[in-house]
Amino acid sequence: MKKTALPKSQKTYMAKPGELEPQWVLVDATDKVVGRLASEIAVRLMGKHRPTYTPHVDTGDYVVVINAEKVRFTGNKWEQKRYTWYTGYPRQRSETAAKRLERHPERILSEAVRRMLPKNKLGRRMLAKLKIYAGEVHPHQAQRPEPVDLGAKKTAAT
Question: What is the pLDDT of residues 124-141, one digit of tens each?
Fold first, then answer.
């Protein structure tokens, strides 16, 4: 009986800081559901869409979001969802999602993405690569961001 050789063990690839070149992607948030869009943006920022994902290294892309004022919520979240924050004085402020859309439309998506990223220094660095704008115009034309369709509802055919 012939003895078979065991396969050589493979090394797990670990990216090093600065080794991977980040891409720039452009996302149009018009009529996209906030939660679905935020989760896919968080995956892009962390770099989990790449086969070279390494948990302790920032391997993600830069994400530019335009038309943030045109996002939508499902159900009655515009009236029921509340954002609260502490002012530094003895009180806590609160506002509905509809009121926040009027005042700071980009913060709705920014908060949703921030809560999906790691809660450490690396997560804060990833969040700094997210650029959100309320209108169509953005100052990142020189980076030539590639348009990507994120946050689209998956159908049974896809």
Answer: 999 999 999 999 999 999
